[in-house]
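Hi F.,

I've been meaning to write this up properly since the lab meeting, where we talked about keeping a consistent format for the predictions we share between groups. The idea is simple: the sequence comes first, exactly as it goes in, then the structure tokens exactly as they come out, then a line or two of notes. No screenshots and no reformatting. I'm using this chain as the first example so we have something concrete to point to.
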Amino acid sequence: MKKLLSSILVALFVFSLNLSAQTITGNWKTIDDETGDAKSEVAIWKAEDGMYYGKIMKIYDETKKDNSCTKCDPEDARYNQKIIGMKIVMNLQKTGKNEWSKGTILDPNNGKVYKCKMWVEGNDLKLRGYIGPFYRTQTWHPIK
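Output, unedited:
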């Protein structure tokens, strides 16, 4: 009985370590929430300022690989810049045990900047972009 109890306690301890180790950093395959198609690969990292950022590393649609952000606000430094290599996630902060928010995300297809929240669910990253009370949620998959 003692061995069983010890095994259960060890398993719970390891499980709790895995939960606390969740992070948004890494490389993610973005999935279009309307079509279900893979769109791009985004790398997310924690910078020296403690904020989290993400940039597009790869675009799967061959016809869009050389596109620039022509729909971005002309006052935004990303206006007319190449989409591959562009920072689209800006200034996210860890705001909870498994939540990052208070930052923004740019959709280079329409040039709009949304308030952003992310969290890890299983192995996937959930990303929610907001404009006022309206939002859309995408699921991104880890790239291994």
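Notes:
Confidence is low (pLDDT under 50) at residues 4-20.
DSSP finds one helix and eight strands in the chain.

If this format works for you, I'll send the rest the same way.

G.
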